[in-house]
Design goal:
Oligomer: homotetramer
Number of helices of chain A: 10
Shape of chain A: elongated
Structural class of chain A: alpha/beta
Largest interface: A-B, 49 and 49 residues
Radius of gyration of chain A: 23 Å
CATH superfamily of the largest domain in chain A: Aldolase class I
Number of domains of chain A: 2
Largest sheet of chain A: 8 strands, parallel, barrel
CATH topology of the largest domain in chain A: TIM Barrel
Mean pLDDT of chain A: 92
Low-confidence stretches of chain A: none
CATH architecture of the largest domain in chain A: Alpha-Beta Barrel
Number of strands of chain A: 14
Order of helices and strands of chain A: EHEEHEEEEHEHEEHEHEHEHHEH
Strand content of chain A: 15-25%
Helix content of chain A: 25-40%
Chain lengths: 333, 333, 333, 333
């Protein structure tokens, strides 16, 4: 950690600060410049609160050299984390496809889609039961009933299920769910992160619409610091000024996160683009960029889907996509 | 609501869609162009799900002419909403200053600051007890104990208090709190919005870091649709590419929201800029732009504040600011 | 084009506006709603100035249904444009790699790199002679001398060359250059666009850091409306709040532009990411997403490159990349 | 300047780098941490190319402690720069209003507006003759003829004139113009910056739509390093995800730039918001935030303005605004 002092800092103020750092077990190296003095802090700075230091009158700027996330940091855990969900593995060279409808709508709908995507090679079934919607007047999901239907589809097909949890009070309902999804809008719902961190279920953590990779990793750290290391990161598009696509899928997040963390990374091109016509090319791009998995919306009747149908593939489109995905996986591995 | 059809739509497909709209009680006007047909929908379209319509194969684009928020919409409620908190009023020409520390730290700290800002003219006391922090290793607030201290300061000074709630399960602890704050990171925590919408307390709803004004109003609508119309909107900076300020304070949100909604609007320049040296000028600018209130961080010892001290004013700075605020209020009213 | 009128518009005002539209050869369809009247305009609206209409007191909003670009619009030119540069073709199924150093530095440097990337399969040689730099104190390129060296490398290897032009006055110097590059910062330097539109050379037009796809196409339209239809679009990253990568490469621009325009699309992952370690995965992702070409920085001594060395591949890395690119091309075609 | 070395750097590599820095006249201080070594560079680092250093294999990151702009830097020139245009002064406590139409349209139009805004207290007349437009099909200004009309209005009223230059080749036409405006889209047209830096006319430099304050100052530095120190900075809104306003006016740029530079700062709320109904409150906010000037679009017939009429004030609205501006100036000074 680097602390740049202001020009007019007195020697005594500086010495006080140095003593304060040293009292926290840090070593301090001093570089004196013409206009500024820079203190280099050595030791475990991950628990030093940047805000606190920057609040000091004599401090101009604080820069971290090592990151404040530890558990998620590849520097301290060089080996890839492999998350296991039943027999399915994600990360460390293992790749998985997660597919299913945006919302569970009926028994026949979810079962039909599950069987179809399973045949095409999807390893996990996704489906929304509790749905976060911008408008209180839009369809909010089938809730508990939707979870029941997902569990039936799981029993029928043997596919583990992934579904979003929006409220820690609902945890008992999610007993049979295999992977808990934290949605983009809840990425910094720290209370929810702590609650799912106390479970032993794999967590699929979506990047917020305006969050940096560092913040995504800090949110993973919230979950991991409660004892749950099974975190799967998910890039699903960030908000920019572009309006043709719903969001801008940041595929450079894949190799960038790969450098910073050992956690597996999946990509959701359906929500990112918001247009089914763009999903295939973005899915293939994600695989070429080294993603550990894909999360794809598939609907047997996208025309009549109760939400986000515009971005859903048909089972036939998904089957074709899955085939190309396998071929690209062969090229890059 | 305008629905643009794709070029190759057949007459039969078009007629089916028109019948479907009509079945929902809407009137449909048709404009036929060389390349496109446009359907204009007339009637109560606020409950029509845009996603659903856009999902249809024959639909190219959907544009709303009237907004999907009703309760918060000035069009349907032309009169300004005035939120009353004890004797304090915000909105409809009434202006209030909310001041206090980022975090409650001790009895003497919160009491001393409360008395000081009250003397300078602040009407409401703010102070964080439950603190959302990006890192799990940073100070998370004094929690329930902090709430106790806030309530003591309220009893001592008579100032109503504003503090953030992060979890609906904590509601019983907030019994004595006057205004519940929903933080920027929870602006789309819809479960929390619905929970506070079921209380009868005024809600201070902060705009998310990457949320549009329309989304802010949709989140207000979540609260209002549960029966609680006492919503105060708060602009606190949005995320951009600029790095010198922590966020970019969007002051045009004030006159823009004024056009769209009847709800009062307060501005938090402390969190937006993240630098105490920028707070005064941004506070005055907000008042000049017509804000109904200000939310300012004040700390009696900003150097040693446990969080966000870098953006806190001293009581003396706040006193000077409050004086200028009054003078600008006179000019613009 | 859709024109939404304000609620309190009188019938006479409305009729005046309708007559004004009709005088411009447009047909007007009227949809009357409870709160608004919507005029649907049919005919050639591409020459109607949106600003002008929105300026009218009675107009609330103007929305275009058809785009204001004509020459670049796939709707009016369904066939892919293929840009030919000597024997090299880009677009319509033809793919080309453009490689070379950020800056031309010396005869041996440019020649050595040219021969190396040619052997690896690059079809075009890139190299900066006139360099746009944020700081006036940074290296600005070898200018005319750099152009000379590029032309020598072209003569030696037979590779057509691509290099940036920053000033229309320099056009005579670019006589022997095969493709004129318009840099991101000049994407809306309309004077320069018009000047290169008067030449018959292929233009590689880079997307600006904060420009929409629509604006990119309008800039292409500037070039095309002067008579030069040989425009190659280039996605090179947009500016977001993320700081780990220099910019955020928007790969969804590839399939999105494919829908909107017939012009070829190449991707520059080197400038977008600013980190050589991210270039390969982003290049492969771009190819998987359907790009018509790649533009890659290659330097034989990236450690000592005079600019942007941090993002350059070595010739050996480029050779390995080129091999993977060919394999992915086989999968997707 | 701080250079962070990678973990696996050998002692010899490190010593080589230190020698290279020392050869450039810099002193190097070394801080050794557990995972990283940090080099602190002391001396004139403004001419060191960050990219070059970051390109080195052993370097993880480079951070500047002092800025790379010198001429524009308040640190080296603590006194405010006052730009004089005839008798008008901007900066150092002097405030000026610049008003006029977006485009010059006719002799009577420009003269009538000039006389009107002058009576209301505007010190400078603005008016576009060469207009940058996103679409090649939109009105591009009256060009040379427009300049003539501006000069006539200047002669008639004695008001100095401000107008945009888009092409260095046009400089001879701008002989009689008092202030040359560089538009937002040309903020990084470095060739144009250098050309106007060679004149002795005051330059009004608009911030680009996606440019940081640091980049704005680097562009000012381009002008100043050619010998022209009369630069006025102009905030005119940046691009964000918000769509209700055309851009997001960043008023915190005023106090932030005040800390970083001695150059005067004016604000253009007309282009930023794109809506005349938002202009007054944003103008007053800018003044309250300490702006040295305002740039306001005024049109005597905004309904029929040839461009951007939607954001123009009428002369009567401007008169009312000017009055409030004076009152706010009294409060804050």
């Amino acid at each position: 950690m680097i602390t740049v002092l202001k020009e007019n800092t007195t020697k005594q103020q500086r010495d006080n600060l140095i003593r304060w750092f040293e009292a926290q077990g840090l070593k301090v190296h001093i570089s004196e410049g013409e206009y500024q003095t820079v203190l280099g802090l050595v030791g475990d700075t991950s628990r030093v609160d940047d805000g606190l230091v920057e609040a000091l009158e004599i401090v101009e700027r604080v820069t971290r050299v090592t990151e404040s996330y530890k558990a998620a940091n590849r520097k301290f855990h060089p080996e890839d984390t492999v998350v296991s969900i039943g027999d399915v593995k994600i990360g460390g060279g293992s790749f998985a496809m997660i597919a299913g409808p945006c919302s569970v709508e009926s028994e026949s709908q979810i079962l039909e889609i599950a069987q179809s995507v399973q045949k095409s090679g999807a390893a996990l079934l996704r489906g929304g039961a509790f749905k976060p919607r911008t408008s209180p007047y839009d369809f909010q999901g089938m809730k508990a009933e939707g979870l029941e239907l997902l569990l039936e589809a799981k029993q029928e097909t043997g596919m583990p299920i992934v579904t979003e949890i929006m409220n820690a009070e609902h945890l008992p309902l999610f007993e049979g769910v295999d992977v808990l999804q934290i949605g983009a809008r809840n990425m910094q719902n720290f209370e929810l992160l702590k609650a799912v961190g106390k479970t032993n279920k794999p967590i699929l953590l979506k990047r917020g619409l305006a969050n940096t990779l560092k913040e995504l990793l800090m949110s993973a750290e919230y979950i991991m610091s409660e004892g749950n290391g099974n975190v799967i990161l998910c890039e699903r598009g960030i908000r920019t000024f572009e309006t043709y696509t719903r969001n801008t899928l940041d595929l450079s997040a894949i190799p960038a996160l790969r450098e910073k963390t050992h956690l597996p990374i999946v990509v959701d091109p359906s929500h990112a683009t918001g247009k089914s016509s763009l999903v295939e090319s973005m899915a293939l791009a994600a695989v070429a960029a080294g993603a550990d998995g894909l999360m794809i919306e598939v609907h047997n009747d996208p025309q009549n889907a109760l939400c986000d149908g515009a971005q859903s593939l048909t089972p036939a489109q998904f089957d074709k996509l899955a085939d190309k995905v396998r071929k690209i996986r062969e090229v890059i591995s």
